[in-house]
Design a protein that fits this description.
10 helices; four-stranded antiparallel sheet; six-stranded mixed sheet; alpha/beta; 23% strand; globular; 256 residues; Rossmann fold; 34% helix
């Protein structure tokens, strides 16, 4: 029987000038799963991730990461607790090499005495991350020379060196080629072996291939939570929300 969820969200409410961005959201994510969070633009997905990572304060509700309450904690503290996040636009430093980007990200968790100590070469966690994301051959190349897909993998590597248990990935395959989407999905499956990965995504083909669990949001609420891909496709409420949405429409999700 499955134990307690790593991430437990209860009764979450967020309003912006009277608009209810989140309206009583309950959400659970467990160790070792790839949990897709989908829904049209304005559904509340980004707001939910912003609350988890401390960028938005809820008016009500609880966000527990293991035994720790995250509401009220600053973003830097939440990162150090083991929660990592990517954004739609990669935040790598183009002028630094791939290895230096990872080394810079890894330094965020180092104590001051180690930061002040002159280091030679790359630390083992950086080398391991390079291998995991498939960028070891590019370690000495400027990050600005990478393809869009490679920059996404580098950003995931920059999370891995911070030793997170929970990763929140915001549209990791947006703008990628079919081959890059497949490699990204395989990478996500690999890193989820001993972590929890929540993926905010619109690409339903990608979801069908790589999701373990799916949650659908609409107008700040959950239409269905912790469903299979098949259950989402068969859900009448989900069908009603997306009826008439053309394939590829902005913010739309093709559920058939």
């Amino acid at each position: 029987m499955r134990g307690e969820a790593l991430l437990q969200i209860r009764g979450l409410h967020v309003s912006f000038d009277g608009f209810k961005a989140l309206d009583g959201v309950d959400f659970d994510a467990y160790d070792g799963e790839v949990h897709f969070l989908i829904g049209p633009n304005g559904a509340g997905k980004t707001t939910l991730v912003d609350v988890i990572t401390g960028l938005t304060a809820p008016s009500e509700g609880s966000v527990r990461y293991g035994a720790t309450e995250l509401v009220g904690k600053p973003p830097q503290k939440i990162v150090r607790l083991g929660v990592g996040r990517t954004f739609q636009t990669a935040t790598v430093v183009d002028a630094l090499t791939v290895g230096e980007n990872l080394d810079l990200a890894a330094s965020f968790r180092l104590p001051l005495r180690k930061l002040l100590r002159r280091r030679r070469g790359l630390d083992p966690p950086v080398v391991e991350a390079l291998e995991t994301v498939g960028l070891a051959p590019q370690a000495e190349e400027p990050a600005g020379s990478l393809s869009h897909g490679q920059k996404q993998w580098l950003e995931i590597g920059m999370l891995l060196v911070q030793e997170p248990r929970l990763l929140l990935l915001d549209e990791p395959v947006a703008g990628l080629s079919a081959e890059e989407r497949t490699r990204t999905g395989e990478l996500i499956s690999l890193i989820a072996a001993d972590r929890t990965v929540v993926v905010v995504e619109h690409d339903m083909d990608f979801l069908r291939r790589f999701a373990n669990v799916v949650t659908v949001m609409h107008e700040g609420r959950l239409l269905c939570h912790r469903a299979s891909v098949g259950e989402v496709q068969a859900n009448q409420e989900v069908q009603q929300v997306y009826v008439g949405r053309a394939r590829g429409a902005r913010g739309g999700v093709e559920v058939s």
